Amino acid sequence: MTVGAHRLALLKDGAQTYPAMLEAIARAQRTICLETYILRDDRTGRRFAEALVERAAAGVEVSVLFDAWGSSVSSSFLDGLRRAGVRPLAFRPLELSAPFGKVARRDHRKALIVDGTVAFTGGLNISDDYAAPEDGGAGWRDTHLRLEGPAAAELQYFFLRTWQRAGGAPIDGQRYSYAERRPDPAVQIVSNDLPRRRHRHGIREAYRHAIERARRRIFITNAYFLPPLRVIHALSAAARRGVDVRIMVAGTTDVPAVLLASRTIYGHLLDAGARMLEWRGRVLHAKTAVIDGVWSTVGSTNLDSQSLRMNLEANAVISHRGFAGALERMFADDLAHCREITVAHWARRPLWERAASWTAYLARDWL
């Protein structure tokens, strides 16, 4: 759909996202910038590697930035990319001598930018976990966004700045268009950026301000839900003033400690009138929100301390009724896979679960 100066497409799971990304890669003429927290040497990783190698052979400048902590790739996999002309770069390889604060700060963004005009961002990494079962994957539930327009240049700007600060190879500046980096209030890229501390809370503040302005409904899907007190208080206040607050979290998760810690804060939100929904089935990994049928966001950011304080993240923030409506319909479809946690359910938790939840919550800043 057309939103401001952009064309947007909401993508569900790897079944829709990966083919769209691979098609965009195949059409690249000048540059490909791929940034991911997880890059794996598995079937999906090899599919992307083959696509990137093909375009590098055609003369496209292909740069791949992956997080050293989150990824699992062999030296032979990386050597194969380098020999073919692809430029892979590990973000902050683990070094025993590095300060803890530097090691703890990871690149959690998921972005693909092709020719500075077509881009993707959202929750999907490059791994079989997200691929459709018919493609040999685990079919994790996730949401991604394809966009064409000025926001693509914005994502490219953040990629290139991080690439250079991480020690990446020199870029061919003539291939990249910087003139098109211009704001569009309908579609904005909000990033937790690397160099300046004051830019680290942009995503948290975007969420908080939108929640504080809400008047009718707030629908949040967030796989790892451990927000700071400011956000918890904003959600509780919204529910108390009559806003329909629904929060969908991962009841089926790859990080059980986060779910246990999340359950500690359910009581505060339930008492305020919010509704808590735990996803059942495939692992839920999405990070989206839609407020009052107008404001919405799709991105890489979990509502937890690591994402909101430490990691490099990127979210698209869209102000458009049509797009918000599509995201609300996706949320409604996902409700069929959820179990609602009521005040009665929460009060009946066994003692062992209460103790485990509280213990996990004490470590919330590092989960």
Automatic annotation (TrEMBL):
GO terms for cellular component: membrane. PROSITE patterns: PLD (PS50035). SMART domains: PLDc. SUPFAM superfamilies: Phospholipase D/nuclease. It holds the Pfam family PLDc_2. GO terms for biological process: cardiolipin biosynthetic process. It comes from the Bacteria. Residues 103-130, 280-307 form the PLD phosphodiesterase domain. One of its GO terms (molecular function) is cardiolipin synthase activity. InterPro entries: PLD-like_dom, PLipase_D/transphosphatidylase. This is PLD phosphodiesterase domain-containing protein.
